[in-house]
Amino acid sequence: ADRSEARATGLNTRVLAALFGITVLFISLTAIWVAMEQLGTAEGLSAGVVSLALSFGLLFSFAGALAPAFTESLTTRQRQVKIAYLVLLGTLALLAWGVGAWPYALALCLYNFCYSFVIPFQSAWVAASDSLGRNAVLVPVAQGIGVSLGPLLAGMLIAGAGISMVITASAILLLCSYLSIRWAGDPLPQS
């Protein structure tokens, strides 16, 4: 079969790997989001400072989702996604060290920017994997599963092992997500 026929076949192991990577990313991000307020208060930050940082962080989430429209010509998608995942891991390290209000806010804003930054790339990957569009409808399913499981995981970890374990689990999940996405490859032609 030629490439166009292969693209029309639908689900395969690479698409499943990409969907798994998306699910795991959303488990990671919602698990850490459940813990964000507690991480701030554990650092000794007031509820007002934590609320302001969380609110301001959402603006960075919007900017991160918009940024891929402007960054495509800078370097490859794969490199941009790799950098975003590295920054995500770096923000988790910053949160783990617990170093005050400004580093907490910076970590929160960078985290929000980067997780939103990778979502359009992942969605485009799955959409391009099937010329008939059948796989694209699975992206919100993968995201929804992750959004549902992340808070459950965080709650269990906080209750059983403490808040620092949420950071560790989130980092491990990010690595799994990145490796899964990386293994899936990129069906989109690079310009």
The rounded Rg comes to: 17 Å
Extended strand count: 0
What pattern of helices and strands is seen along the backbone?
HHHHHHHH
The number of helical segments is 8
* Unreliable runs: 1-7
Mean pLDDT: 87
The main sheet comes to: none
How would the global form be characterised? Answer: globular
The chain-level structural class is: mainly alpha
Share of residues in helices? over 70%
Distance N to C terminus: 25 Å
Strand content: under 5%
Note the topology.
Elements: H1 3-7, H2 13-42, H3 47-66, H4 68-71, H5 77-97, H6 101-128, H7 138-160, H8 163-184
Helix pairs in contact: 2-3, 2-6, 2-7, 2-8, 3-6, 5-6, 5-8, 7-8
In short:
Helices cover 80% and strands 0% of the residues. The chain has 191 residues and is an all-alpha fold.
Key words describing this protein structure:
single chain, 191 residues, mainly alpha, disordered N terminus
